[in-house]
Amino acid sequence: MIMENDLPQSSSNAGISPESGPEALDQIEMSFGVLSRSLLEKNPILDLWRISFLANFYNEPFYKTMEENEGISRSEFLVLFCLNSRQGITAREICLATGRPRNSVSRAVARLRKMKLITYSVSEDDRRRKILQETDQGRALLDRVVPVAVARMKVMMSPLSPKENKELNRLLTKLIRNVPTWAFPE
């Protein structure tokens, strides 16, 4: 069991701030249980836990609904989303951009090809490289799904003022720039 003295001493272990008031903690406990409340208040990986908490409650319902309504998985969506952002990329580039394992992306590419949502061509420079492209059907699927993701994001972000949102984006950018220093274990 982790004891309070074992927690690193930093402001990041402050948990839910006092300005939020006890009602914020009570609401979390009522919605997600006493364990969620205690994990969001204090633990040795508080910042990571809180980021994961937000990401999980955003992502899981979105991906579940998308799979039920559109028949595509998380990895398949990520491949399509990446291709929509930049045509003519490889599965390897998608792995690097998303952090998804090669086998997941490879399966997603194969399934999306079978569904005719993407195509590929062999690179002229390197015959081993497959250059991926989304099809019109793939683009149409994203046209249906992305607005749902945007609407969820707006609801999630709604408690923040424009100034707070700008500050959050600044801080996230700072964290993202540091990813190369810790993302790949030696």
Descriptive overview:
- It is a single chain.
- The chain has 186 residues and is mainly alpha-helical.
- Helix content is 62%, strand content 5%.
- The protein has eight helices and two strands.
- It has a two-stranded antiparallel ribbon.
- A hairpin with a 7-residue loop joins strand 1 and strand 2.
- Helix 5 crosses helix 6.
- The protein is globular, with a radius of gyration of 20 Å.
- The N terminus is likely disordered.
Q: What is the structure about, briefly put?
A:
The chain is mainly alpha-helical and 186 residues long. The protein has helices at 22-32, 34-41, 46-70, 74-85, 91-98, 102-114, 136-157, 162-177, and strands at residues 118-122, 130-134.
Low-confidence stretches: 1-13
Q: Beta fraction of the residues?
A: 5-15%
Number of DSSP helical runs: 8
Rg from alpha-carbon coordinates: 20 Å
> Ends: how far apart?
29 Å
Defining traits:
disordered N terminus, 186 residues, globular, two-stranded antiparallel ribbon, 5% strand, single chain, mainly alpha, 8 helices
Write the layout of secondary structure elements.
Blueprint: H1 22-32, H2 34-41, H3 46-70, H4 74-85, H5 91-98, H6 102-114, E1 118-122, E2 130-134, H7 136-157, H8 162-177
Antiparallel strand pairs: 1-2
